[in-house]
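Duplicate of #3305? Posting structure anyway:
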């Protein structure tokens, strides 16, 4: 995930802003980590460079 996306991403549950938690970064891109909502405390996984922004009720 390109870190510049942080400027436009919002929590799908409450529309709050995210804090980016990086586990693995490669060539300036986040490969694994999570997006943590500052408003509702939701957590959304970043895996393979792709953030999963599905609301919790839609995750299988």
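Output from current build:
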């Amino acid at each position: 995930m390109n870190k510049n996306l942080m400027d436009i991403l919002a929590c799908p549950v409450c529309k709050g802003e995210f804090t980016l938690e990086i586990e693995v970064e490669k060539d300036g891109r986040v490969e694994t980590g999570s997006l943590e909502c500052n408003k509702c405390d939701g957590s959304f996984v970043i895996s393979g460079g792709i953030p999963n922004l599905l609301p919790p009720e839609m995750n299988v």
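Confirmed duplicate; merging threads. The chain has a mean pLDDT of 94. The CA atoms of residues 7 and 17 lie 9 Å apart.
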